[in-house]
Amino acid sequence: MKRAVLNAECAARTEVIEEDVTVAYEQAKHIHLAYSIRALSADERLLLRRIAELSQEQTEPLVSGAIYTGAKDKKISYTAFFKRLRKLDALRLVDLIRVQAGGRTSEVVLRYEPAKVVQICG
C-alpha cells in the first residue's frame, strides 16, 4: 500500500486510485526474484536464464541431465553444475524433485514465470 501511495503522490494526486495499487502490485510481485538474482554469480545467473529459456521451449518436465547437456559448452563438472542447481533450489528460485532415473537425476521446476526470469537475468 505504501508503494501505491507513493505512486499517487508522484502523480500529484491526493487519492490512491486502482491503477496505483495495480502498478504497486506489479512492482512488488517480483521483488524476491530480483533480489535473489542480484545475489547470484554470473555463472549461476546464466544457468537460471538457461533453465527459464528451456522452460519456455519445452512442454515436458526439465531434467537436470538435459540442462547439463545444454550447458556443457561452459566446461563444468556435473558436481559443480549440481551444486549450482542446489543453490538455486535453496534460494527458492527452482524446485528440485528427485526422479527414479539413476544417479542424481532431478526434475527442475522453475518457481517463477520464465519470461520474467529471462527479463531480470538480462
Notable characteristics:
122 residues, mainly alpha, Arc Repressor Mutant, subunit A, 2 domains
Can you give a write-up of this model?
- By secondary structure, the protein is mainly alpha-helical.
- It has two domains: 2-32, no CATH class; 41-121, Orthogonal Bundle (Arc Repressor Mutant, subunit A).
- Helix content is 60%, strand content 10%.
- A three-stranded antiparallel β-sheet has the order 1-3-2.
- Strand 2 (94-98) and strand 3 form a beta hairpin.
- Helix 1 crosses helix 2 and helix 4 (42-57) runs antiparallel to helix 7 (114-121).
- The model has no long low-confidence stretch (mean pLDDT 89).
Task: Specify the CATH class of the largest domain.
Answer: Mainly Alpha
* Backbone structural class: mainly alpha
Helix content: 55-70%
Low-confidence stretches: none
Strand order of the largest sheet: 1-3-2
> How many individual β-strands?
3
- What count of structural domains? 2
Q: Give the N-terminus to C-terminus distance in angstroms.
A: 29 Å
Mean pLDDT: 89
CATH architectural designation of the largest domain: Orthogonal Bundle
- Here the CATH topology of the largest domain equals Arc Repressor Mutant, subunit A
Number of helices: 7
**Shape annotation:** elongated
Tell me the quaternary state: single chain
Strand content: 5-15%
